[in-house]
Amino acid sequence: MTETAPRPTLEAVAARAGVSRATVSRVVNGGEGVREPLVERVLRAVEELGYVPNQAARSLVTKRHDAVAVVIAEPETRVFADPFFALQLRGISKELTAHDSQLVLLLTEGRADHARVGRYLAGGHVDGALVFSLHLDDPLPELVQRAGVPTVFGGRPDWGEGNRSVYVDSDNRGGAREAVRYLVGLGRRRVGHITGALDQTSAVDRLDGFRDVMVEADPRLIAEGDFTPAGGERAMRLLLERCPDLDAVFAANDLAASGALRVLRAQGRRVPEDIAVVGFDDMLPVAEQTDPPLTTIRQDIEEMGRLMARLLLRALDRRGTSLDDGPSGVVLPTTLVRRASA
């Protein structure tokens, strides 16, 4: 059996660089007060020896774990089937990687998982948390608050005006208004809406945007979906049963729109000649692959994830400050992307 070479120690780096152990510790842990020539000598010795700091020991010095929990309030089957989550995770991962911080992914399948997540966060394993896809009755916000970890939420929270929770969101209501105004501008008069899951603020905001334009819309023109292709199919069938003369549909996301398009094709409705369709998200793996390609409202999902991580890391770097010192909410703009479906 080949013997494993011993890992280089802090003392070995100090001897190679010709400095004290304390100087090496300050350099590798990001401390200040070391002259630049000494920093260069230490870093050169670290590279030559292949020294890797002991994370447990480093945490004692820096009071940081260099790890962030990403909590998605959805079951595993939903997370890995919906490109939205992949895009948001990519943005988060890029930002954390650039700051040498690890991503710890936590999903919630049911109520028992909420308690597990709460215990993990309270256990001091991570520096902070990024939480998204919350539902209105979700216990996660209270559990996160009880855990006492700095947190940034993805999506507008809905737990009172006095709460200054930091969040990043897109202009869901404004984007929905733009989508419906576009359809009306095309001369469409019977515009239906397939909602998202109405226990989430993004779906509620998009429904409100639809109603802002279609002020006197027949309630039968609104069918509840759940942000999935299957939900879009069910809602589209219901809209056609209720309103056979429907001439346009705004779906709360691209996945629901893709389901709606399948139903329209199966029933012989031409898109956009008979019924125009607009989605929301502009997730390219979906929007460019539908038949026909989907006109949609673009939100920068990856940038939302990146910005969530950036806000959290900025607060962690300013030791002694709070996330409450910054803006409580950042809302990113949306834009209409025109393709063949409308």
- Strand order, sheet with most strands: 2-1-3-4-5-11
Helix content: 40-55%
- Tally the structural domains: 3
Low-confidence stretches: none
Task: Please name the CATH topology of the largest domain.
Answer: Rossmann fold
CATH-derived architecture of the largest domain = 3-Layer(aba) Sandwich
Number of strands: 12
Give me the secondary-structure category: alpha/beta
- What is the CA-CA span between the terminal residues? 67 Å
Reading off the top of the CATH hierarchy, the class of the largest domain is best stated as Alpha Beta
Spell out the CATH superfamily of the largest domain: Response regulator
Mean pLDDT metric = 87
List the main descriptive attributes of the protein structure presented here:
Rossmann fold; six-stranded mixed beta sheet; 342 residues; 434 Repressor (Amino-terminal Domain); six-stranded parallel beta sheet; alpha/beta
Describe it for me?
By secondary structure, this protein is α/β, with parallel strands linked by helices. The chain has three domains: 10-62, 434 Repressor (Amino-terminal Domain) (Orthogonal Bundle), CATH 1.10.260.40; 67-170 and 302-332, Rossmann fold; 172-298, Response regulator (Rossmann fold, 3-Layer(aba) Sandwich). Helices cover 45% and strands 15% of the residues. It has 14 helices and twelve strands. The chain has a six-stranded parallel beta sheet, with helices on both faces. The chain has a six-stranded mixed beta sheet with strand order 7-6-8-9-10-12, sandwiched between helices. Strand 6, helix 10 (201-213) and strand 7 form a beta-alpha-beta unit. Helix 1 (10-17) crosses helix 3 and helix 11 packs across helix 12. The radius of gyration is 25 Å and the shape is elongated. The termini are far apart. The model has no long low-confidence stretch (mean pLDDT 87).
